Amino acid sequence: MDMLNSWDKWMAKKHKKIRLRCQKGIPPSLRGRAWQYLSGGKVKLEQHAGKFDDLDTSPGDPKWLDVIERDLHRQFPFHEMFVSRGGHGQQDLFRVLKAYTLFRPEEGYCQAQAPIAAVLLMHMPAEQAFWCLVQICEKYLPGYYSEKLEAIQLDGEILFSLLQKVAPVAHKHLSKQKVDPILYMTEWFMCAFSRTLPWSSVLRVWDMFFCEGVKILFRVGLVLLKQTLGSSEKLKSCQGQYETMERLRTLNPKIMQEAFLVQEVRGDGGRGAPF
């Protein structure tokens, strides 16, 4: 709590302690506030006081509104916030996504932004969620949600080159099967694993992501690839391209389990972090 109340002092002098706190997991009661501080969303909101209200009351571009409307019920449909059509969760999700299309009309709306905004709304009100979304799109994952997806393709190539160092067996197999990174890592990275991992693991990954940035997504991706395809034993049951893609689509729950995954991402498993 003291960390949040005197944030600037902590950021200036004790960044390592903040990182360790985020790696250990932010207490649920503080998570929403901590994410706003870590992302810079709180500062953005203060710098642009009233901006969200202006965007919220503006009509918006019909071409984006229709697409957003169609996506609302697909986000965490079993969560109490989003279970009912027209319920407050879906309404707030619509408001946040519409506001972003007005804030960045040249980018508009990308489907992968919806689960990101939904996770934020589970932890904070709409205005705060909007500014955290802005930070994710502009500071953490710049270019990810633009029409041509150039940034995600580039990061796919970087992930693949890192894989050669971390898990050469997996790298060789994916090369041989001609499985392009874009085929398996697009949803992982663009949704920050919110549609891939179990909920408790998502929250721990996001705690570290907000503190340390995109490298956390790379680390998670490398852990999943290594644990799935990293040895000849693991490859026995996925000889072809189809089997390999199927294996990456239906990951073993054990490797996604919170304690195991966080330990691997932090490098506590005795081998150091993937990079």
Automatic annotation (TrEMBL):
One of its GO terms (cellular component) is plasma membrane. This is TBC1 domain family member 10A. Residues 25-213 form the Rab-GAP TBC domain. SMART domains: TBC (SM00164). One of its GO terms (molecular function) is GTPase activator activity. PROSITE patterns: TBC_RABGAP. SUPFAM superfamilies: Ypt/Rab-GAP domain of gyp1p. It comes from Ornithorhynchus anatinus (Duckbill platypus).
